[in-house]
Amino acid sequence: MEKLFIFDTTLRDGEQVPGCQLNTIEKIQVAKALEALGVDVIEAGFPISSPGDFNSVVEISKAVTWPTICALTRGVQKDIEVAAEALKFAKRKRIHTGLGTSEFHIKYKFNSTQDEILERAIAATKYAKKYVEDVEFYCEDAGRTDKVYLARVVEAVIKAGATVVNIPDTTGYCLPWEYGNKIKYLFENVKGIQNAIISTHCHNDLGMATANTMAGVMNGARQVEVTINGIGERAGNTSLEEIAMILKCHKGLEIETQLNTQKIYPISRLVSSLMNMPVQPNKAIVGRNAFAHSSGIHQDGVLKNRESYEIMDPKDVGIDENSIVLTARSGRAALKHRLSVLGVEVENGKLDSIYEEFLRLADRKKDINDDDVLVLAGMERSEQKRIKIDYLQVTSGVGVKAVASLGLIIAGEKFEAAASGNGPVDAAIKALKQIIKRNMTLQEFTIQAISRGSDDVGKVHMQVEHQGGIYYGFGANTDIIAASVEAYIDAINKFVK
Ligand code: KIV
Ligand code: ZN
Q: Which of 90, 120, 287, 484 is 20 to 30 Å from 477 by CA-CA measure?
């Protein structure tokens, strides 16, 4: 078996998705869960991009022990210096530097030439090497880079000391055999290629990120850059869970990772919940329907022998239907254990307040599942928010006009308003806008399907536009109107300071 290194970029490429930004505490939670999952490298951020990103790289470096902590830079000295500073507490550290190598990048982004970019690539690698031993170089837009020039760059940066060379399909353009052939060409034409690890970094614009990554691996790449749930800019990056389970299911490939796949489902839920990013129900491995057989023929087959229709045991990815339900009779210890399985460590003081919320929810809902538990932990986080709901009363129905009265607490002061609308959400939002008189428009409003019975918690995602910016809000409540108002307020809390 050959080892494949897992480079997780959920906290860098994944976090670049608008609305998915995490604070440092949340990033540490994800980083610790990634460590428990067994990833080899955590790309913790792009330190020069903001003080928040810098600080997150510092704190993640302190918080985790085993994985290498990696910081992204452009191929410029200042970026590299700042990344080195952010990594100073990391036990194992890597600088990920690079430049665009395709004609599009060289001509239009840099207004430069191939020779000049080659020199800059060498200089950036050597400069990073002054600060850390482990330097990864990325050839941005390698997917559309001429293979002969790409080979020149790869050879030069390896000679300059790069330990890993990343071949990103930045735009998600490549076909699997095209991407595989690109990697093969490098192995056949780059002198010294055995001195570095070749890495894949695929985007999913044409839905081929996983296929392209596997094509790279089959042609010699031994590091894959992936994200939890495949999150990432536009259509996302390669999903960690898909690569992990492909290799687990296809032992004949003789390539393995050191991932503990039973941690996949909990970390998927954690990332989805912290980033307020729902996982599509039919998402491979971690989607709600990934193991749900609805047709009679399938159900019959699975009952007789699971392997008739299932290639994986749900337990191998950490889905254990028996262990994910808590009820009003569950104690603090059970709740704490469940939170910890989901990657959320809470101190006793915080546990008490989450437990109180848990009991309140358990009064309204019979079974509390993982999503509910994560939402409860999230409520604890939102306690410190400036605007909170005091009360909400709504009358609606067939043949009556919807009317809402709403009380808010803003920075400790109470405000009230009432309004009517064409439905209960409209009435409630109109009341909200009477109190918060800002120029803001609701751009997108998604109510996540309630799947586990009429007493389930409804989840609402909203995008609110304010002064040219888009702010994302999330609300979760057994009352869907309350969840909508919570989501609106969550978005407002992001621009009202
Ligand atoms: O997609 C890409 O090219 C990247 C690089 C910055 C590594 O994310
Ligand atoms: Zn990328």
A: 287
